[in-house]
Design a protein that fits this description.
424 residues, Cytochrome Bc1 Complex, Chain D, domain 2, two-stranded antiparallel sheet, 15 helices
Length: 424
């Protein structure tokens, strides 16, 4: 046999081995075995299952590129604050997790709750820890007039946006309404002089100011819509597991896999942290301790009342939605006892990268969070949904986690971290 024949034979043998290896790889058994129910849960937690971000029918400009560019400018402009030093980006930093890493949000003063990231907001029907806003654009307006955050007032902000961004505003929203002569400061939510100045404006002028103010929020929401989570090691593992890819399951260590198993079973974490964003978008009282025991935070119970009164909600005059498109808002009840002391379930995406935890940063580490759930203490206000040790509970079993389980769960939670995608 000449050298050429030997070379051809060797190439053929190599190709045959490659085909055999690929077939053998496909037939190799999975490293980790899961029940059909567990497989379905793991598959549903893949980020790709979130699909396209749903359109916000209350914001007709949310998907417009020009609105996003305008909104980004507003998001980063510190002039939209009382002291000229605070922007949306001050608490929602684009260089981190679009939050600030503090126990309490820090604007011109210190707030009472933890800053939430903006990723995933387009998928959530309610925003803030207490759900007092029902859209990203409405949410963007709240901090503008909050005395601890931007600390400003809407007339000053409207004057500023039309003076500094008139061309961008008109490119997105058309000609600004006729506002006439406005006072320096006026707002229905401000200081006593600001409220008096607001009341002195004609109804038509107040409506025109509100319209421009609402459009500021809609532009900011258009920008935030383009900020999102990207896949993590967990997503690689979930994809491999769904397709029976044993080698692909090596994306998680055995400890991390054990943590996932505890997450789905004895930890009962998946009860609230489910779906592709690992949140049920609901509100739960899980006995998280109050920061101020004498004045416990009422959470969703108060947030509901604020939401239903909000002139910038889906049913309000500045929404682009039809009333029948605001179903989430129309069927809410303020009398549900379970809302007292309940807070929004946060996404667990990138959770290991954004300590501290809970609505007021009560826990410094994931270990402390998991120890809290293992202890299942009684609620400081309202009634905890968790079954305490020895309790009989209609919907829950007592969470029983060993020290090793807690370590495994914390390791698994670390696999949920991936890049943050944002406009360049």
């Amino acid at each position: 046999m000449n050298m050429r024949s030997i070379g051809v034979a060797a190439t053929a043998a190599a190709l045959a081995f490659t085909v055999f290896a690929a077939q053998d790889f496909k037939q190799a058994p999975p490293r980790d075995k899961w029940s059909a129910q567990e497989l379905a849960a793991i598959g549903s937690m893949r980020l790709k299952e979130a699909g396209e971000r749903p359109a916000d029918v209350s914001n007709a400009h949310e998907q417009h590129a020009e609105a996003a560019v305008f909104g980004r400018a507003l998001f980063n402009d510190t002039r939209f604050s009382k002291n000229g030093q605070v922007a949306c980006a001050s608490c929602h930093s684009a260089t981190g997790q679009f939050e600030d890493g503090r126990q309490f949000g820090q604007g011109i003063a210190t707030g009472k709750r933890r800053t939430m990231p903006v990723m995933g907001a387009a998928h959530s029907p309610f925003l803030f820890w207490d759900g007092r806003k029902d859209s990203a654009w409405s949410q963007a307006l709240g901090p503008m007039e909050d005395p601890a955050e931007h600390g400003g007032n809407r007339v000053r902000f409207v004057r500023l946006v039309l003076a500094q961004y008139e061309a961008q505003y008109q490119a997105v929203f058309g000609s600004a309404p006729e506002l006439g002569t406005l006072p320096e400061d006026a707002s229905p939510n401000g200081t006593e002089p600001e409220r008096a100045a607001w009341a002195a404006l004609s109804p038509a002028t107040r409506d025109a100011v509100n319209r421009v103010f609402a459009n500021m929020g809609k532009a900011i929401a258009a920008y935030e819509r383009n900020v999102s989570y990207a896949g993590s090691r967990f997503d690689q593992y979930a994809e491999a597991t769904v397709h029976g890819d044993g080698r692909g399951q090596e994306a998680l260590s055995l400890q991390e896999m054990r943590g996932l198993r505890a997450f789905l079973t004895k930890g009962q974490c998946v009860t609230c942290h489910n779906g592709p964003l690992l949140t049920d978008h609901a509100f739960h009282n899980t006995g998280v301790p109050s920061v101020d025991s004498k004045n416990p935070d009422h959470g969703r119970a108060e947030g509901l009342k604020k939401l239903l009164k909000d002139e910038f909600n889906c049913l309000g005059p500045y929404s682009d939605a039809k009333p029948q498109e605001c179903g989430e808002l129309q069927f809410l009840s303020v009398d549900e006892a379970g809302q007292l002391g309940a807070f929004r379930t946060p996404s667990l995406r990138n959770v290991a990268a954004r300590a501290p935890y809970m609505h007021a940063g009560q826990f410094a580490s994931l270990d402390q969070v998991l120890q809290h759930y293992a202890a299942s203490p009684k609620a400081a206000i309202g009634h905890s949904e968790l079954a305490g040790p020895g309790e009989k509970h209609a919907d829950r079993q007592t969470i029983q986690l060993s020290a090793a389980d807690i370590q495994d769960l914390a390791a698994f939670l670390g696999t949920l971290t991936g890049p943050v995608l944002q406009p360049k």
